[in-house]
Structures are given as structure tokens and as C-alpha cells.
Write a structure and sequence with these properties.
Collagenase (Catalytic Domain), 43% helix
Length: 146
């Protein structure tokens, strides 16, 4: 599997690029994608709030935004599929208690067309996320902790 990652860390968070690649490759492989290009930007809360306001009309920082590319199947020859970009806010993730790896899986599934706009879609997407995270040895983020 070959996943090209263009990483732009504009936050103060440290990130293990090898782990990011491992998680992203697992999420893509779960959906039958064995190669691709994904841009990943890590941003601080003010920048994430600006992006969320501009693209979703919500002027607050969120943990992850996904920007899939249209026409990704139309790339000629043996070039990797350009899947899109993920924007992750590590500070928001930390405040929410969500590991960045979980957001990478969640965002990658959005790049591949998954969504959670209704209960049925949310259940399907959550089930797939749980399977991928389990296979990666990452704790289930949807389990209530007491």
C-alpha cells in the first residue's frame, strides 16, 4: 500500500508521521483503497474556527474537517488517487479527549464518502470506525467510560 501524505503542521502539536500513515492506510484499506494522496493539516483552534465558519457556517473550533476531492476516480494512468484534505485541530481533540488517530480514521472515511447526517448513516459509519480502530489496537472512542 502506498499512501502519500502531505503534512502541514501549523499547530504546536507534535505528531508521529509514521503512526499517522499507519492509521490512514488502515482506514483506506478497509474501504478497498490501496493507494492515494491525502493532505493533512494540523491547525490551532482560531484557524479551525475560521475554517468551520467558512465551510459549515459554524464559527467554533471543531476537531476534524474533511475536504474530499470531486472526480477522484478520473485520474489517468497509474497515478495515486487524490482523495482530498483533512484538517485536524489537536487542541480541540485533546479538550474532547479524542486521540488524533481516531480523527484520522473518521476524516478518512469522510473523504471516501461516509457521513453521519442521519441515524442510519451514523450507525454504519460508527461501526466501520470501531472495526478499523479495533484492528489498529486503538481504544473504542464510543464506549461510555465511567
Amino acid at each position: 500500500m502506498t499512501v502519500a501524505i502531505e503534512l502541514d503542521n501549523r499547530s504546536s502539536a507534535a505528531l508521529d508521521e509514521a503512526e499517522l500513515r499507519r492509521v490512514l492506510e488502515a482506514a483506506l484499506a478497509a474501504e478497498g483503497i490501496d493507494d492515494g494522496e491525502v493532505g493533512v493539516a494540523l491547525v490551532d483552534e482560531p484557524e479551525m474556527a475560521e475554517l468551520n465558519a467558512a465551510h459549515r457556517g459554524k464559527p467554533v473550533a471543531t476537531d476534524v474537517l474533511a475536504f474530499p476531492l470531486d472526480g477522484r476516480d478520473a485520474i489517468p494512468g497509474d497515478l495515486p488517487r487524490q482523495l482530498g484534505d483533512l484538517v485536524i485541530c489537536p487542541a480541540r481533540a485533546e479538550a474532547d479527549g479524542t486521540p488524533v488517530e481516531v480523527l484520522v480514521v473518521h476524516g478518512a472515511l469522510h473523504l471516501l464518502g461516509w457521513d453521519h447526517d442521519n441515524d442510519a448513516d451514523a450507525d454504519c459509519m460508527e461501526r466501520l470506525e470501531r472495526e478499523i480502530l479495533h484492528d489498529l489496537g486503538i481504544e473504542d472512542p464510543y464506549v461510555e467510560r465511567g
